[in-house]
Amino acid sequence: MKKRSFDYKALIGEGNPLLRYPELKEAAIDEFAVKRYDDASLNDILKKAGMSKGSFYHHFGDKFGLYLAMMDIIAQKKLSFFYPLMNENLDTSDFFGTLKAIMKATTEFMLHDERLHHLSNRLMEENDAFRNRMYSFFAFDYYQSFNQWVYHAVQSGQVDSRYPPDFVVKLIEVMFANIHKLVSSGDPEHLLETATQVIDVIQDGISRKH
After folding, report:
1. How many other CB atoms sit within 10 Å of the CB of residue 192?
2. How many whole angstroms from its chain centre is CA 29?
3. CA 67 to CA 120: how far, in whole Å?
4. Which one of 51, 71, 91 terminates a domain?
5. CATH number of the structural domain spanning residue 120
6. Which DSSP symbol is given to 138?
7. pLDDT (tens digit, 9 = 90+) per residue, 46-84?
8. 41 lies in a domain?
9. How far is the CA of 54 from the CAs of 7, 51, 57, 70, in angstroms?
10. Counts for the chain of helices (H) and strands (E), in that order
11. Which residues contact 20 (CB under 8 A, 6 or more apart)?
12. pLDDT band at residue 193, thresholds of 50, 70 and 90?
């Protein structure tokens, strides 16, 4: 029997079925926040959520559909933190000043929901093909916009041309993803202060020297 096609786009937005199944959402976040996509067990998720496979496949299609539905929830959360900053008010003339604003928004998102922050970072560990497939479902490509912004900073001389743009992108991604490892407490002021210090270190290392 030919496998029926599934409309993954139906998982995006207000119709996201994961919003109607809080137990499944919690079980999925718990599993995917600590494991890569291929290593995560759908059986364990469904068992913890108390959901039948028949019902799951009807609403989500497969494990990718579940992951996509989760990333849609994360995207909506991030919209109120730093997507508008990247999409509308990106200052190309002050790379490091804007980078501090993005880092501040990132730490605020982490303080709001640490599990979703870790899950978002987990996506960056997946291979390019998987990430590109995931991003293709969203109208605003944050990572593409971010990459173009970094390239502009290199081309405009704000970042030392000795450092390849791809390296700068990866460096910033790693620092953003691991900011929580640099603080010993969950104090918001301490976290924001550390985030600013991280950008100062990056700026001192890669900015163009006069």
Report:
1. 18
2. 13
3. 11
4. 71
5. 1.10.357
6. S
7. 999 999 999 999 999 999 999 999 999 888 787 777 666
8. yes
9. 17, 9, 5, 19
10. 11, 0
11. none
12. confident
Give the separation between CA 111 and CA 191, rounded to whole angstroms.
9
Contact 119, 29 (CB under 8 A): yes
Its pTM stands at 0.72
Distance of CA 136 to the CA centre of its chain: 14
Same domain membership, residue 92 and residue 181: yes
Q: Which of 130, 125, 78, 127 is nearest to 105 (CA)?
A: 78
Give the range of the structural domain holding residue 180, as residue numbers without chain letter. 80-206
pLDDT of residue 32: 92
| Pair 91, 174 in one domain | yes
Q: For residue 184, what are the contacts with CB-CB under 8 A and spacing of at least 6?
A: 190
Determine the Cα angle at 109 with ends 12 and 125, to 5°.
Answer: 70
Reported as type and span, the H/E element at residue 74 is helix 63-79
How big is the chain by its Cα radius of gyration, in Å? 19
